[in-house]
Amino acid sequence: MAFRYITEPEERLRFAAILADNIADAVIGTDTGENNFRILSWNRAAENLYGWKTEEVIGKTAAEVVPSTMLPEVRKKMMALLNENGYWEGEVVQHNRDGRQIQIHATVSLVKDDSGKVIGAVAVNRDVTGRKRIEENIRQSEEKYRQLSETLDEKVKIRTAQLNDLNSILHEKNTSLAAARSELEARNKQLNEAQQIANLGSWEWNVESGELCWSDNMYRIFEFEPDEKITFEKFTAAVHPEDRERVLQSIGNGVIFNSFEEFYHRITTPSGIPKIIFARGEVIMNEKGKVVRMIGTGQDVTTQKTTEQQLIRQMEELKKLSDSDIQKNNFIAMASHELKTPITSIKGYVQLLLNAFEKEKNEEKVLPPLLVRSSLKSVDKQISRLTRLISELLDLSKIETGTLELKKEEFMLNELAIETVEDILYTNPKHQINIFHDFHHTVFADKDRVGQVMINFLTNAIKYSPNSQKVNVYIQKIGEDEIGFRVEDFGIGINEAEQQKIFERFYRAGGKDEQTYPGFGIGLFIANEFIQKHGGRMMVKSEKGKGSNFTFTLPLTKKD
Amino acid sequence: MNDSPLILVTDDDPDICIMTKMMLEINNYRVLIADDEDSTRKILLENKVDLLIMDMLLSGVDGTDVCRRLKADPQTAAIPVIMFSAHPNALENCRDAGANDFISKPFEMTDMLEKIKVCLQKGSTSSLGR
């Protein structure tokens, strides 16, 4: 390879040639454009790049060896830039000898002589096909990366969307959970309020672990601190000592018999308030039928129970009132009967006598004088009886109004007793009355009233001894200050329950047959009132079917 | 006199017994008296009694119960019974006991005699209605 126009020494030329051949880029020297860029030089790199040997290309136009693939407009523009700047750089696609397309980075410069006249052009072409490939690879990689990143983006988007969905679901869940929680709280509050209103608490007892759980209101009822953990022991300690055993028994029965029987029990709260609790419950069994838990309620029924008890008391009082009404009505019926009986006798005898006088006029058969006399005696006796009954009613009325007065005097009690027994024997001649008295003592009392009590005792003894004629009377000193008058009979007797009531007003022995005896049913009541007013006592000792002992005592007159 | 009707008067009050007896005797009835259930039954079984006049309260036994028992006994069932009592509300009880008639105490002698006459005519038919 040689430059025809080189005028330098030969050494310099040789160096230039070696230099050209050692350049890695293809260096092609050509003639001017007017001479169609005829190739003047073609270094070794150009040979390697294009496949053409130097000898084969020298003298040929550049277009002949390396046909341009540029579009005419582009080439025109390039030429214009080259002429204007003396330089052009750009990338072009060319073909080598084998027709393989190669990518060239070309730098074309115009070569000028010392006078500045263009004498040729030099092109330095570098094969950038490899670089291009790398670039392409990079580009493709970038594309892949881009795609990948787009995919990734997409995925991230999808995932994000999913996450968002999940989030909103979670949010919804949370919202509904919160709603559920607040509803639960509301329900709990309602339950608590309901329990408070009903004064009711609920409990759960784990039989196996012994753990006891109470509702808020249970704590309130038992007046335990809310943070005080309840235990079975604390519960039993609160139960009233008298109820404790029964409560434990009931709970134990629940475990043993698989059923919880409701029961009442009392408790004492820390503040000392007694309460009544109504306990109800259920047992919960495991699959083996063993009781593992108990659940139930405890209701504070103190108010109800107290009201109930008050009601029962009031009912009892009402019953007492109505009982006394019944007694009063019975008394009136009996009193009218008692008053009518002597009147019946009196009326009968009077009619008999009147009838006798009528018949006497007609000279018919008349009553013998003896019968007239006995009739009049009977009338007299019945009038006395009537008077006595009316006095009794009067006494009752005085006792009721608190206007009973005593006319006290000193007298010997046994003397009065003897007189009274004689009177009684006069009207009951069949009876045998024995008097036992070992001493004489005076009392300061209303003689008539005391006599009345003696008559009451004696007539009762006779009246209630239908099958016995024997009556004993004892006058005895009791202790230091009292004297007792006792009447003993062997009649029908009085059972113990009746003995408590016989001194009550209007009381009459309960049995149907017992009520067939005459009398007001106020005798003993009046007698008791008399004796009490004297500072004495009245006592009864009796056995049903065997007889009775009635005693009254009076204080003895103090001897100076 | 031996043909006249025989009447038994049962009352625990001896005065009423004697008074009634006198009243009936001057009206030509034959009269026996008793003061309790046992003597009443004894007299009824031992005599041909045409009528029983009985008090309701007999000191230890209810006259209506005695009446019921007499009416239930074939030996005494046919004897008419007039109950008499001073007790209010006695009429009902006496009717329930199967008495033939009832006299309220105190009574008018003429009423007593009239009721006795009717009862003796009717025999054991009740005038109290059932």
What does this structure look like?
The complex is a heterodimer of chains A (560) and B (130). Chain A is an alpha+beta fold. Chain A has 15 helices and 17 strands. In chain A, a hairpin with a 5-residue loop joins strand 3 and strand 4. Chain A is rod-shaped. The N and C termini of chain A lie far apart (190 Å). The model of chain A has no long low-confidence stretch (mean pLDDT 84). Chain B is of the alpha/beta class and 130 residues long. In chain B, 41% of the residues lie in helices and 18% in strands. Chain B is built from five helices and five strands. A five-stranded parallel sheet of chain B has the order 2-1-3-4-5, sandwiched between helices. In chain B, helix 1 (14-25) links the parallel strand 1 (6-10) and strand 2. The model of chain B has no long low-confidence stretch (mean pLDDT 89). The interface between A and B is medium-sized, with 35 and 29 residues.
How would the blueprint of this fold be written?
The complex is a heterodimer of chains A (560) and B (130).
Chain A: H1 10-22, E1 26-30, E2 39-42, H2 44-50, H3 54-57, H4 62-65, H5 72-85, E3 87-95, E4 101-112, E5 118-127, H6 129-197, E6 200-206, E7 212-214, H7 216-222, H8 232-238, H9 241-257, E8 263-268, E9 274-285, E10 291-300, H10 302-361, H11 369-401, E11 408-412, H12 413-427, E12 432-437, E13 442-446, H13 447-463, E14 470-478, E15 482-489, H14 496-499, H15 523-533, E16 538-543, E17 547-555
Parallel strand pairs in A: 12-14
Antiparallel strand pairs in A: 1-2, 1-5, 3-4, 4-5, 6-7, 6-10, 8-9, 9-10, 11-13, 14-15, 15-17, 16-17
Helix pairs in contact in A: 10-11, 12-13, 13-15
Chain B: E1 6-10, H1 14-25, E2 30-34, H2 37-46, E3 51-55, H3 63-72, E4 81-85, H4 90-96, E5 101-104, H5 109-122
Parallel strand pairs in B: 1-2, 1-3, 3-4, 4-5
